[in-house]
Specification:
This protein has 493 residues and is α+β, with helices and mostly antiparallel strands. Helix content is 56%, strand content 11%. The protein binds protoporphyrin IX containing FE (HEM). The site of protoporphyrin IX containing FE has 27 residues, from helix 4, helix 6, helix 7 and helix 10.
Length: 493
């Protein structure tokens, strides 16, 4: 079934030729270490691989080049990230670079996925190529992680809330959930720490993990086992798998042509027909009406729509990944033709249909955001930095005990405070709608503790859905009249 013998003897022949190479020996031996000098004609014909591995590598290269250029302008802080992305429009070719990076990323995910499906259909993961499949699967997960981490960087409402919901899933993992969430978000909610973490993941850690894996993947395909011959017998007969095609000029010129054509099309699309999306700037205090996961995770959003319990949904999301990773170890038969593997064909077809249906559902289902009382308090009265309470002038903080959500008839309270109470009420209602609380009530207590110093306490009393006892959460900030800054903030339960 597999043409390893042919490939190894072709390799030996090639090494003899390389040793004799008189033309630019240094350069040629370097390139011929990277690429075999001869390929079996059948294996590299277009219909065998659809060049999907090649396209995946090409889009990865596009991402690396455009990503490095974008790093020159991007600032990974909540205060500047959005503006730095917006300002790209003013830089020569800045918008083009951003569009290329965004579209290239989407195409990278798509081509890696299609490459995987092609390998699965042709049964090329079997036999000696099991480990190649394993490295490929891990590469695929890393590509998804790269795309997801990059999604947050423009710091707009859509990306902020999609990543909030996406990372929130990890919180459901028993034992390590809250720890993992804290590590990913850099706090209870995504803020400066979270953005920096995603940035470091996107530009350093994940690319550094991809490179060695890609080297191993490529080494196994290019130097160790070669590409599997076509499974279709007619194609094998026609293409005469023992005939070889040389790297130079045939394969190299074909690949160069494909590269130029793809780059030309990509640039033409982003120049005339594609704009990378950028919505409203991220606002952790305003939950948008519609939250949408990135397209490659819409299926997970669809799954959460039909299975709202987070832990079972998380298990359903992780399991296909594991099944994928271990495919060559439980499908051990050497038969490759699709028609001779009816059970596999059926399972693959059902999985692909399921993926499509869930993606379709995910695009239609709005993802609710669940808040814990702690994260709500953190958003309304952040321990570090300024929150909504700091948007009011000192004099607008009318003394008294103000019940959030009650209809006010007294006119003595300032209009700024009135708006703030309405805002807090809307946040609390949002949380109640996300069905975490069965009951909740809040008061905002404003008192003078010494001349020109006010203490403001937000006290929330909530009854969680799964508990009968009410719990009280509160947080306090101090404001003083002369400098208009917070002296100290604290949280206690
Ligand atoms: C960054 C991602 C990836 C890159 C750049 C890449 C690159 C390539 C290239 C250039 C080839 C040879 C030509 C071809 O088959 O199209 C190849 C073959 C292969 N790849 Fe990948 N690949 C990636 C991801 C994956 C994934 C996700 C899988 C599967 C889970 C995978 C499994 C394989 C296997 C088994 C082969 C050998 C195919 C054969 O012998 O017919 N690769 N890869």
């Amino acid at each position: 079934m597999y043409n390893g013998d042919f490939f190894q003897s072709s390799l030996r022949g090639q090494q003899r030729v390389e040793a004799k190479s008189q033309v630019l020996p240094g350069i040629s031996s370097f390139f011929f270490h990277l690429r075999p000098r001869h390929y079996p004609a059948g294996s590299i014909q277009f219909s065998n691989t659809l060049y999907l591995g090649f396209f995946t590598a090409l889009f990865l290269a596009v991402e690396v080049v455009t990503g490095i250029l974008l790093m020159v302008y991007y600032t990974p802080t909540p205060a500047s990230a959005y503006q730095s992305v917006q300002a790209l429009a003013l830089v020569p070719f800045g918008q083009l670079l951003r569009d290329l990076h965004r579209l290239g990323g989407d195409l990278l995910v798509l081509s890696a996925f299609l490459h995987m499906v092609r390998v699965a259909i042709s049964g090329s993961y079997k036999g000696p190529r099991r480990f190649t499949w394993l490295t490929g699967s891990v590469l695929f997960f890393l590509v998804l992680a790269l795309a997801f981490s990059g999604y947050l960087l423009p710091w707009d409402q859509l990306s902020y809330w999609a990543v909030t919901v996406g990372t929130g899933l990890f919180g459901a993992l028993p034992g390590i959930g809250s720890w993992l969430l804290e590590i990913l978000r850099g706090g209870p909610e995504i803020g400066a720490g979270g953005l920096l973490r995603f940035y470091v993941l996107h530009v350093v850690l994940l690319p550094v993990a991809v490179l060695p894996l890609l080297a191993v993947h490529y080494y196994r395909v290019a130097r160790l086992h070669g590409i599997s011959p076509p499974i279709c017998t007619a194609a094998r007969r026609n293409s005469d798998n023992l005939r070889t095609v040389s790297l130079w000029p045939t394969v190299a010129v074909r690949e160069l042509q494909l590269t130029l054509l793809t780059l030309f099309l990509l640039i033409a699309i982003v120049a005339f027909a594609y704009d990378a999306p950028l919505g409203e700037p991220a606002n952790p205090l305003r939950t948008p009406s519609h939250i949408e996961a990135p397209w490659f995770f819409l299926w997970a959003q669809g799954l959460l729509g039909i299975c709202p319990a987070t832990l079972p949904a998380l298990v359903l999301i992780i399991t296909p990944g594991l099944l994928l990773l271990l495919l060559p170890w439980y499908d051990r038969r050497q038969r490759r033709p699709f028609g001779q593997r009816p059970w596999f064909a059926l399972a693959l077809l059902v999985s692909l249909c399921l993926l499509l249906v869930l993606t379709f559902l995910g695009a239609r289902i709005q993802q609710p955001i669940s808040h814990s009382p702690e994260t709500l308090l953190d958003a309304l009265v952040p321990v570090d930095g300024h929150g909504p309470l700091h948007t009011l002038a000192y004099d607008e903080l009318t003394l008294g005990v103000h019940t959030v959500g009650s209809v006010r008839t007294d006119t003595k309270i300032s209009s700024g405070l009135e708006q703030l109470l309405t805002f807090i009420d809307s946040r609390l209602r949002g949380a109640a709608e996300s069905q975490r609380f069965s009951e909740s009530s809040s008061v905002l207590i404003i008192e003078t503790i010494q001349p020109e110093v006010k203490r403001i306490t937000l006290r929330q009393s909530v009854r969680l859905k799964d508990s009968t006892a009410a719990r009280t959460f509160e947080r306090t900030v101090y404001r003083h009249g002369f400098g208009e800054t917070s002296l100290l903030s604290g949280a206690k339960k």
